[in-house]
Amino acid sequence: MQPSQPRENAPETRPSASPDGVSRRSVLRTSTAMAIGAAAASALNFGFPSGVYAAGDGTIKVGLVGCGGRGSGAAVNAMNGDPNAKIVALGDAFRDKAEASLKNLKAANAKQVDVGPGQIFDGLDAYKHVIEASDVVLLATPPHFRPMHLKAAIEAGKHVFCEKPVGVDAPGVRSVMETADLAKKKNLTLVSGLCYRYDQAKQELVKKIHDGELGELQFLQTNYLTGGLWSNPRQPAWSDMEWQLRNWLYFYWLSGDHIVEQHIHSLDKMLWVMKDVPPAKVIATGGRIQRVQPQYGNVYDHFTSMFEWESGVRCMSTCRQFVGCDTDVSDWVYGTKGTADIMQHRINAPGGGKMLWKRRKPAPAMYDYEHVELFKSVRDGKALNNGDYMCKSTMMAIMARMSAYTGKSVKWQDAWDSQESYTPKSYDFGPFPVAPVAVPGANSVT
Predict the structure, then answer these.
(1) Of 126, 268, 293, 410, which sits with the fewest C-beta atoms within 10 Å of its C-beta?
(2) Cα separation, 135 vs 132, whole angstroms
(3) Against a cut of 0.70, is the pTM above it?
(4) What pLDDT digit, counting tens, does each position of 42-81 carry?
(5) CATH number of this structure's domain 24-197+366-387, picked from the four choices 3.40.50.2000, 3.40.47.10, 3.40.50.720, 3.40.50.300
(6) How far from chain centre, in Å, is Cα 255?
(7) Which of 46-60, 187-201, 284-298 has the lowest mean pLDDT?
(8) What backbone torsions phi and psi does residue 61 show, to the nearest 5 degrees?
């Protein structure tokens, strides 16, 4: 479907504000952190089911794979989520990233960081060592590696926090679905980084939609219009592979393009509203207007998609990453009895009429609360498994990218069955040409 790049067919981004610092979602608010920690301490049973933990004092050992802004943020959220969770191992392709993450984590909460010099791992096999050292593994590398890392963690019997998206191509997503099924069989918790599912205000609103308070659903609309993101200028010593890994957002083999890496949050909310029934088909368009320079690799900077369900409900989806333009992150659900504004947690009468309901009760920070739920499930021995919807939401984004890249409408089953893999023949740190930007009409769905 996309322009050719060395790859083989074997199956194998809450975007960061900074490539090295803790992301915006991990900024500590002392009152929130204390409230979450107190709630966790009072709600959790600190007695351990036999054989679940390596430590015998109530400590859950947490390892981080992928030490950029999102990974460091997830580690802070994990510490906020359970006062007896302790970061014990860090792994990243690059040593400097892991060491920067350790510095940030100690500054955030040194009492829950116990990473010795021998527990910092670098290289593309770093994940293996982190998994071995941990009870719970946080996966936050570029999405291309998610299927591989998740499979290794679950096969090793570890509980997992798995950042979105779960892959960049259909073979990868199918692999993750198989791994999620294995996690169920092994009673292992698998929590997704699709954080809006853990927002109590949105949970309440979506329940009202599912209970029929909007009447019959007619149309959905979602926007994720944001600014530009970070990039790392290429250094003379960097190989092609290192340059791409350090700028993974801009290469579709690593990120899946921003419709998959970032806009998945919006699409996941739409899938949630539709009770996790995937759309039957999509037609999409996209391209590059601002980000045309070589440092931006081969991804698009805007997409527009129209999804359609078997029921006839349609969803108009738009996303872009433009500098100097207005931003808009919003989701709307239109029904015969009312309109829901998901981000503002309210329901209005049809046609923009009076407000019928609004959530006013404050909710715990969703970024921390997903980890509260993760650790509670581990301690209670009642595994959570978000595998189904995290795979479907990822595939929903992938099918839209497939449509935009080819200029063709794409059916759900065709996307799911696609054999196109973005896995390279090797991960050698040497020459690795950038694949051409996709040109609609020049490629076919495979």
Answers:
(1) 293
(2) 8
(3) yes
(4) 333 333 333 345 446 799 999 999 999 999 999 999 999 9
(5) 3.40.50.720
(6) 10
(7) 46-60
(8) -85, 125
